[in-house]
Each structure stands twice: as C-alpha cells, then as structure tokens.
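Hi R.,

Here's the chain you asked about this morning:
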Amino acid sequence: MAVTQGKIIESLEAICGSLDKDEFIYQFLLAYGFPKATITRLKDGSRNVASNGDVALKKQLYFRTLASGTNVYEAAEALKSEPVVKSNDIRFIVVTDFDSLVAFDLKAEESLDTDINLLDKQYAFFLPLAGYEKAIMYSEHPADIKASEKMGQLFDLIRERNDLSKPEDIHALNVFLTRLLFCFYAEDTGIFEQDQMTKAIESTTSITGEDLDQFFTDLFKALNLPDTAPEKQAMPAHLQAFPYVNGGLFKADEPVPEFGTKARRLLLECGSLSWAEINPDIFGSMFQAVIDQEQRGNLGQHYTSVSNIMKVIKPLFLDKLRDALEAAKGKEKKLKELLIRLQNIRVFDPACGSGNFLIIAYKELRKIEMAVIDELNLVSVQSEMYYSGIKLSQFYGIEIDDFAHEIAMLSLWLAEHQMNVEFREQFGYSEAALPLSNPGNITCGNSLSLDWNSVCDISRSDETYVCGNPPFHGNKGRTEQHVEDMENVLGEINGYGRLDFVACWFLLASKFAEDRHVECAFVATNSLCQGEQVALIWPQIFKRNQSIFFAYKTFEWKNQAKGNAGVHVVVIGFGQHVRTKRLFSQSTKGQWTVQNCDRISPYLVPGSELAVTPARKPLTKGISVMENGSEYSNSDPLILSQEEYDQIKGMPEERWVKGLVGSSEFINGKKRYCFWLEDATEEDINKSEIIKDRVARTREIRLSKTNKGVIDSANWPHLFKIPNHPKEGNYILVPRVSSMRRRYIPIGFMDTDVVATNKVQIIPNGSLFEFGILTSEMHMDWMRVVAGRLKSDYSYSASLVYNTFPWPLVNDDQRRNIEVLAEEVLLVREDYPDKTLADLYDPDKMPLPLQTAHQALDAAVEKLYSSKPLTDSSERLEHLFGLYSMLIGKN
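And the predicted structure, written out as tokens:
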C-alpha cells in the first residue's frame, strides 16, 4: 500500500479537525492505506469481527467508542482480555470517547494515551498498519548507568588527590579501576564470597582512607598468588581468604592511587550496588571514563552501548538465528542441527577495543542456545544433559592498545561467567568458575597492517560475522600512522585521502568476506554515505558481488560513559547473496521503523546501488555553468563593515564599493561590503589614501604567508585572491552550506552591485527556469542524498550536486510555466521585507503563502519528470537515479 508518513499526518489532521464520529474509524484506516474495498466490507459487516457497534479487523485493529466521561483507560484494559481480541489475533486496541483516545499495541507491548485532537502527533504509534514495522530497541540496564556514574565520581575524587599529568599515571589509574571493577563484580557473582572486598575495606581500613592504597596493593598481590604460595600464606587471614584469579589481570605491579575520606565512602557505596545485574561492557565504559579526549582519539578506542551494539548484531545474525529457532520448535533433529550451528559460528571484531561487541554477541548467542536446549528438553525421547557448546574461542578480535586488549579478554571471561550463572539457574548445572580460562582469540596489533586471515582463520564455508565500531577520523583527526595505514589499505583507490579513516575497515572486511560465508556490519560516520565518499568506497564493495542488506540511517550515537559526547553515525550491513534487505529509519520522536527493500542505495535510501561521481560540467546539455564565488582569504583590508562603509558614504571612494555576500550574509540578512577595484587603474588607487593604504596592507599580509598561491596573489593586492564576478546582469546565488532542518535551501538572485564570496556558488545570468528547478523538491531530494555534510549541515557542491543533477527536458510552454511559478516564490518572499531567509525557511516559521508557492512549483517540476504523481522522496530519487544512469551512459 503506497502511503507516506507525511500523508498520514495530513489525513489525521483533517479527520480530527472535522470530527465525524460515525466515520472516524473508517477515515482513520484509509489514512493508513487500507483499501476502500476493505472499508466497504467493514461497514456492511462482512469483514467486521466485532459486535455491539464495535469495529474490528482480524489481525489488525479493534475499535470501541464510549460515552463522554467514561474511563477510557480502564475500558481499553478490560478489552485486552476479551476473547474476541485473542481469537482474532488483534494487534491494536483503540478506545475513545472522542475527547481522549487510548490504544494498545499488543505485539510491541506499548500503550498510547492522548487527546484525540493531538492524534496526528502520535501517528508513528500506528505505523505497522501501513507496513512500517516498529524496530525493537534495547535499552541500557539502569544498574549499568548508575555504576558508571558512581565510578566516574570516584575518578573525580581520585583526580583531586593524585597527579595524572603523565600518560603512565593515566595508564596506572586505568589498571586500578579495571581491577576494582573486577573485584566489585566478583564479590556479587560468586567468584569471591558475597561482599568480600567491600567488607574487608570497611573492617580493615581507616575511615580517612589514608591506608587504602596499601590495602589494594596487598589485595592485588594476593589475587595473583596461588593459595599454596608461601608469600600468600604469610599474609593476614582476610587477604588469604581471596582466591587465586589467574588470567593476567593482577600480574603487573602498578602503583595504586591515594584516597581520602570521601573516596573511601564512595568505594563502599559502589560496593553496595548490585554488580551481578551489570553488563560486562561497563568495564569498557569505565576505561573510557579515565582517558582524556586526545588519547582516546589517538588510540581509536570507541565504546558502544548495548542498544547500539544490538543495532548491528541483531539484523546481522541474531534475527535469523531466532527465526531458525522458531522454525525448529518441536523438531528434535532441527533443534540439534541448530545447536551444532551455534557452536560453529564465528564472530570477529577487527577493532574490538575493550570487547563490547564480542561480549554482547557471546551473551546473545548463549541465550539462543539455552532456548534451544529448553526446546530439546521438551521434545527429546530420552533424558540428556546438554552443556553449553559455545566457546570463547569462537570469538576473534584485534585491538591496537595492549591494555584495552587485556580488558577485552577479561570482559569476555566475565561474560562467560555471567552466562554460566544463568545456565545454572535455568538447568541446575554449569561449568566451573575459577581459574580464568582461555578468553578468546583476541590479538594485540594494528588491524590495518595485520593479515585478518592470520587472526581469524576460517574455511570458505564457516558461518562468520564481522562486526564492530572502528574509529572515525576525517582529515583533521589523522596522525602520521593513520595516513600510512590509509595508503596501505586504500591506496588502490584514486582520491582515497578524502575518505574517512573508517573506510579502511569496510574495504578490508569486503576483501575478507569475498567468496566466503561471511557477512559484515559496522558502525560508521555518516560521511561514508554522503557526498564524494560514496563514489570512492562503495563501488569497491559492490564489485565483489556484495550489497547492503540492512542499514540504520543517521542517528546520534552515544555510549554509557560519564560525560560521553554524541556523534552522528550510521550502521551498515553488507555481504553476498542476502535476499531480504531492511532499511531502518528514526522518526523525529526517536522511534525506529523498518522498511523492506529490493535494494538499498549506498546513500541509504531504497533504490539503485549507483554512486554519483563528481562531474566537471553539467551532464545535462544546455544548462548554465555553476561557478565559485570570489576567493577572498587574505584580503581583510579590502573588506568593510557596515560602520566603515557608512564613514565613506558620499566620498569619492564610494564608487569602488560593492556589497559582499556569502552564505551567512545571504541567509541571515547581514551586511558587509568590499572595495572592488577590478576596473581601477593605478592612478585611481593612488588618488585615495584610504584605498592606497588598504591595498598596501593586503600586499603585506599575502607576502607574510608561506603558501605559494597566497604569495603569488600579492602581485594583485587590489583584488581578491581569486576574483570571479559577473560584469553585468544578475546571477543565481546558491549557499554552499545550509541547515539540514530546512526543506529548501534558500536560493536567490543577486545583481552585479553585490560580490559573491567563495562561501557561495553562482550561476552568471541564470534564468528563472533554472532557479525554479534548483529550488524545487526534486532538486532538494537529489541534493539531500548526494551532497556532502559540514557537521550535520548540507554542503552543496557544483561538481557533485549541480553538474550531476538530471534536468528535465521541456518545451517552451513548460519552461514559461516554471518561470511564472518560480517568480511567484520570489514575489511572496518580498511580501516579508522584515524577515530574513533564515526566518522564511525555518520549518517551524515558514509563512503559509511561501509554503503554497513552493508546493505549486514542486508539483509543476515533478510533472516534468513523470506524468503520474511520485508518492514520496524514495520514488522521486528512484526516478532521478534512473535518469542519472542514462546520463552517464551518454557522457
């Protein structure tokens, strides 16, 4: 059913605005794309499975109305348990008195309670009716966040009393906090006696905390000694009572920080938390909490929350394993085959940090395994004891930092212990605890120089999943080592330096997966699916017969660590021979929906896998050329503020002044000016002391630089570094950068009294027709997909957006019609002289007449491309990419 979310909102606004109680439910279902034939059959009763005036559609919705003043929520709760709801597998219950509306999504276990006149704001709740299934998200456990905050506070107190100016000081503190985390976890999960360390601190150390450093020094030594060691037997009884841990965690002799009264009290508070409920990935978050931003960037240590890890591994392999479990229920042979399959799956994180992806993947696979064993116990003829066959040796990782590498191994062991406890609780038996065993195949090294096959040695038929959150670095964030790594990995790609650092992992994973039973999924900066990077990296992956089979569109990524900062990322899964393709999108309210697609574009929209390549000139013949504005760097003396301009008004120098406009000036209505001396002779310049002085200062500035191009421009100090300004007529101005909130980039006309800077692009003598096409929804859809980004803002490029755009073929009448509608947009703008373009194109403030003018232009431009209406941006883009494919064929 072809229905867009925008149309659903519009329909709900109309339904609730002119409320017809008798028709409400039928209009509601029409809004979500139900066929009119279904509505007719509901009305005549042939499809209505309800009675007593209610309306219900099998497997979809049950609707009941109540008299005003009735308790709507209680009525909806009661309706949930009525037999008619269960027997007809109803998904949504909706009850209203036409003032309030209460709904239950029985599948997603969600509820909605809203005023009926606000129903359009809650449209996303019912999107499964239109085929947009809700994606089930995983939230962080509250205990994780509480523990993270407590440990962050502890670090703050330690920092007050200890010198952490050197890298080795930070490293020692990392070691201490990791050991401390292990001990807290161990005393709540049966590794130690319950609260063993906390009680020892409370009973054997001073309330001032002055002897805590010695206590921990002795404790860590005890944990590294076998019970039979003479040195341990010479220790006090409370230290002898701690078990031998092994595993290397307590091996190194690292200094312990000093404590005070508050820190000791906070230690005891931490000990009182329920650490048994805490995910082992908290260790990675705590490790992050004590590393400064610069070091974190250098080491590439990124920590991903459980909910975001699930965005990667759930569609990568967990969903299909759970589907396999559902299909195998009641079938002993199939269940045993699935058990063997689980024991042979490989999971590989080639940038594993402290191991969070591997930890969560391990735990989720163990949960599925326990569910399989449960089912086997139900159907097996003879009684068998099934132990876990999933081993840590199935999990592989590469980590460049030696300490994070140790943390990853420790955290994997803790995850194993945690799952063994769950196994024992469910089945009554499990593996032994101490000493620590093989923590998995985690290699310490640079994953961009190591041969991945030497780390994860698999056959072509081994079911393997490569996943993780590799580091992101643009041009500014790279070290010499990053540059060397990129050359080694991406050197075969012309222009590879413009790619983000994370592209290295995509290419290596694609090569690793080629012709194998391997599928891959990574968190990545969204720049990899925007602008020129798309054409650089994705054809390299597609040429190996691999495709994107799931993706999460741009969202803000956060982790659990104290003071974490969000960045905008995507999640992309790719591999060979995957039929089902799913695209996840987030609404403005943060709810995720999933859409099934035939193909997913590298721009993360449904459609062609074609990547747009920058073009030097417009691919469509007969279209005006877009040029850069004037490059004005190192020309400050030639630029005037409003105040400076006012001072020379009426003076001879005013004849040489023009307005100066870049993106900010154009969009926000700011005023700047410049001396434009292109036609001035040397005599003209020397006549004015003001101009002569400014030209001389410009020359001095340029000569003081080291860049050859800037130094050369000292030969024309009366002009901008690269002057480019039309001699006559008007020009179309297109800002290089514009907010992603805007539906339309503000585009306009300027005359030659105003000089455009290189912060904008210009079309000299551009026509109303060209303005109309550029400011249309068709062009904006193209721009939003293929343009690059400056942070989250659109970065418009002539070579990538304008030159590649497939312009429509038009006759004279069609051209004139577009010109009339384009002029109307400009005329409506003039009706608001007190508003800037930023005001006019703010989506929350855009005047209705301007919206109407744009919508009329949008509709007319769309008709130039298709005689049938295109329902949404996906259809428009599919059409444009088809035209682009033909254009590059011709060119």
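The chain has a mean pLDDT of 89.

Let me know if you need anything else.
M.
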